[in-house]
Design goal:
D-amino Acid Aminotransferase, Chain A, domain 2, D-amino Acid Aminotransferase, Chain A, domain 1, BCAT-like_N, 9-stranded mixed β-sheet, alpha+beta, transferase, binds 4'-deoxy-4'-aminopyridoxal-5'-phosphate, 8-stranded antiparallel β-sheet, branched-chain-amino-acid transaminase activity
């Protein structure tokens, strides 16, 4: 669909996957005025196809749109765009084996042919889909995470809480740095003091303590409000863990790992699901969480979340929406 200042949204249609026609002067290519979402469609054992909390993605996309001076797409149009694509691509939704799903990527960008720094008067919206397996090639093997004290993902007043391409562009060099230190992922600290945990390049971060608390950074404005993050907090509470959303100082976390007070850590997101963190590395040293293997509670939370998504566990919270 296309939005213009004069006409609003028009022209929603299903078209075969293929290259876009775009002017070399399209504003998005120069100024990065672009946002996106990430969601999944899951096939259940009876053949039906479902998605997980899509209204959360719709609302987050609206918040991202506002921050990037893009037009709002009504929630019902967002949901209908996803439903229509999955209905058309239904044969591509994989059988419910392992971690397979159909990954869905709604995105919106400034398509006006215009060089100059102002909000685009023409905006395009698309949804594409791709069958997906496990996010990490090693599956649920615990991650080695590099803590960068050089680069920040987002600053106060910036776009950290929006899901815009620029945030990911700014994370790539730090990710390369992480890989050069033998790590799977990079963890960002807050941009002001470089002391508090923000998030990984595409996942929120959690810690579980010996006394059954589950800790995660509070929504400071510089981290993404993950749909998985909020769902994990609810599932954890159902299991008797006490959720604590707070400022998590890396030095405190390192101390609590060494003292055995933090017994498990994990990262979570739509693509990565729930993935244990086995070790942190930084310029200052290395910290192994527990014995470095996948934590029991982490694996139980993961089993519960994927169980709901694939229809193996009752959908107690009413999180699933049927698509086909
Ligand atoms: N943080 C960042 C930076 C992300 O890109 C993602 C993935 N969308 C997340 C957290 C997790 O969000 P969600 O659970 O909604 O996928």
């Amino acid at each position: 669909a296309r939005w213009t200042v004069e006409e609003g949204w028009t022209g929603a249609e299903l078209v075969p996957f293929g290259p876009l026609q775009l002017s070399p002067a399209a504003a998005v290519l120069h100024y990065g005025q672009e946002i996106f979402e990430g969601m999944k469609a899951f096939r259940h054992a009876d053949g039906s196809v479902w998605t997980f909390r899509p209204e959360q993605n719709a609302r987050r996309m609206m918040r991202s749109a506002r921050r990037l001076a893009l037009p709002e797409l009504p929630e019902r149009d967002f949901l209908e765009s996803v439903r229509a694509l999955v209905a058309a691509d239904e044969p591509w939704v994989p059988q419910p084996e392992g971690e397979t799903s159909l990954y869905l990527r709604p995105f919106m960008f400034a398509s006006e042919e215009f060089l100059g720094v102002r909000a685009s008067h023409t905006v395009d919206y698309y949804v594409i889909a791709s069958p997906a397996g496990a996010y990490f090639p090693r599956g649920v093997q615990p991650l080695v995470v590099w803590v960068t004290d050089t680069y920040a993902r987002a600053g106060a007043g910036g776009t950290g809480a929006a899901k815009c391409g620029g945030n990911y562009a700014s994370s790539l060099l730090a990710k390369n740095e992480a890989v050069s230190h033998g790590a799977d992922e990079v963890m960002f600290l807050d941009s002001e003091t470089h002391t508090a945990i923000d998030e990984l390049s595409g996942m929120n971060v959690f810690a579980i303590t010996r006394d059954d608390r589950i800790l995660t950074p509070r929504l400071s404005g510089s981290i993404l409000e993950g749909v998985t993050r909020e769902s994990v907090l609810r599932i954890a509470q159902d299991r008797g863990l006490q959720p604590v959303e707070t400022t998590l100082l890396m030095s405190e976390v390192a101390h609590q790992i060494s003292a055995g007070e933090i017994t498990e850590m994990f990262a979570c997101g739509t693509a990565a699901v729930i993935t244990p963190i086995g070790e942190f590395r930084s310029q200052d040293g290395t910290w192994t969480i527990g014995d470095g293997s996948s934590g029991q509670t982490t694996l139980a939370l993961r089993e519960e979340l994927t169980g709901i998504q694939y229809g193996r566990v009752p959908d107690r919270h009413g999180w699933l929406t049927r698509l086909v």
